[in-house]
Amino acid sequence: MADDLPYLARGAKPVATESSVLVSNSRYLNSPALRDWLATAFLRKSGKDSPTTLDAHQLYGILGTLFDVPRIEELFTQERARWPELDRWFSEGFSSTFTVDELLANPEGSLGHIFGRYLRDNGFEIDIVPRFEPRNQFEYFSLRSGQTHDLEHIVCGGGFNIIGELVPYFGRLSNLPRFLDAELMGLIHPGQLLGALRLISRTGLHYPQSFPTALRAIRCGMDVGEQSGPYFMAKYEDVFHLPLAEARAALGIVGAVDLDSAEASLAWEEYLSAAREIALRPDNKFANCA
């Protein structure tokens, strides 16, 4: 009898199918690779043998087989017809070409110099992924998103550490839906969404002492995303010479607070190991790592 079922179980119906394998109306659930990624990335502990950055690399490789690119292109084209600023951004197709030396040539305390010092002192590279020639609108959007990610850390106030990643993640997750079509957002943002949620899940499950800071990072990111202009189209090169506060204002960044998440990130074993290695370098000026 239905009345005998637990309240939360009522309404469920068996689904008949002739399929001999798992099948769903969700393209994401239908992907064995994504199911395995989710189970691993959401539930595992931190380990230097498999850095958290590898999660994102693997995720985007999987999602590359799942993106509905024709529909994404159609929706971007519709948005360009509706929004002249977006159309100009795509038409210009600007791509960053700056070097670390060029960044360091900016005045101390400026956005460019802050970024250059971070890259130089930690031995990191400018490009998260190798630069490429985009073939369509979605590839250009993805290229610029990768090129500006570390800069969004700085202007949004997220430290270059594991918990600090939540600030730019939730900045974008709360900013873009204010300006772009909801269907388009659902198609282009699964990487941001799943990438962010894996950090929350693993912090809560394994490093609960750091969970309050993770929640603050989420709030900090959302504050920026909900109050700022469409900074995904920002041309940071124009403000590299400005002090950080002035650069934020010029870019339309509102509500940013520089959150200290370094200590909370030390609970993650890989970050602790990397921080120790960087701190021991004789030429090190900062003890942060991505």
Give the helices and strands, then pairings.
Elements (H helix, E strand, L loop, with lengths): L31 H12 L8 H12 L5 H14 L1 H9 L7 H5 L6 H12 L14 H20 L9 H10 L6 H7 L1 H17 L4 H17 L16 H8 L10 H4 L3 H11 L11
Helix pairs in contact: 1-2, 1-10, 2-10, 3-4, 3-9, 8-10, 8-11
Features:
single chain, 290 residues, mainly alpha, 0% strand, disordered C terminus
Main sheet properties: none
State the end-to-end distance.
55 Å
Kindly estimate the percentage of residues that lie in beta strands according to DSSP. Answer: under 5%
For the secondary structure, the number of strands is 0
Summed over residues and divided by their number, the pLDDT gives a mean of 90
Number of domains: 1
Query: Rough shape?
Result: globular
Task: Please tell me how large the radius of gyration is.
Answer: 21 Å
Indicate the structural class. mainly alpha
What does this structure look like?
With 290 residues, the protein is mainly α. The chain has one domain. It contains 14 helices and no strands. It has helices at 32-43, 52-63, 69-82, 84-92, 100-104, 111-122, 137-156, 166-175, 182-188, 190-206, 211-227, 244-251, 262-265, 269-279. Helix 8 (166-175) runs parallel beside helix 11 (211-227). The longest helix has 20 residues, at 137-156. The N and C termini lie far apart (55 Å). Mean pLDDT is 90; it is low at 279-290.
